[in-house]
Amino acid sequence: MKDEIVVVSGLPRSGTSMMMSILEAGGIPPLTDSIRAADEDNPRGYYEFERVKKLREGDVTWLPEARGKAVKVITALLTFLPAAYNYRVVFMRRAMPEVLASQRQMLARRGRGQDSDKSGDEEIARLFGKHLRQIDAWLAAQPNVERIDVDYNALLDNPLPHLEAINRFLGGAVDVEKMVRVVDRGLHRQRV
Fold first, then answer.
1. Which of 119, 137, 155, 171 is surrounded by the most beta carbons within 10 Å?
2. Tens digits of per-residue pLDDT, 130-155?
3. Are β-strands 70-72 and 5-10 bridged in parallel, bridged antiparallel, or unpaired?
4. pTM over 0.85, yes/no
5. Which domains does the chain have, with CATH numbers?
6. Which residues contact 72 (CB under 8 A, 6 or more apart)?
7. Contact assessment for residue 147 and residue 139, using Cβ atoms and an 8 Å cutoff
């Protein structure tokens, strides 16, 4: 596990920041720079590392410091991870209507949309679905990638079995009891 990189991924607003906080509580240090501060949309923080955004441009020199840690990588950048490293991907899944509602609310808070404007949801859902199928196929074809899917909604309803599965996936490297304590159903605000 110390030579592998734990990658937390999923669509935006699918629970990736929550999973990063869960893994941190379980004993896996996050690779983050704390540039993006916590806010109303992510009260515990975003757990981002800005240099991840430069994967597309070939900036991979930071990857050695990610070994043995968890790093958040959005789905659009997963395919730029170099094959020279081994990855354990914790892939967050969330009900699509909730993802879209959460994005709308976040954009409305930032003055870039209206929370109630659902126009275009069907097209966005179609594009996200196509994107997820492409990412699923890419991940399945990578010999250096192991993957576990985590259902955000099911995790919030009954965390223990999902966190035990993550523990097995990570080779028994995490403290499940501490992880359970940070699962906060109060953060599930966009229920559809």
1. 155
2. 999 999 999 999 999 999 999 999 99
3. parallel
4. yes
5. 5-183 (3.40.50.300)
6. 7, 8, 9, 16, 17, 20, 30, 32, 46, 47, 48, 49, 52
7. yes
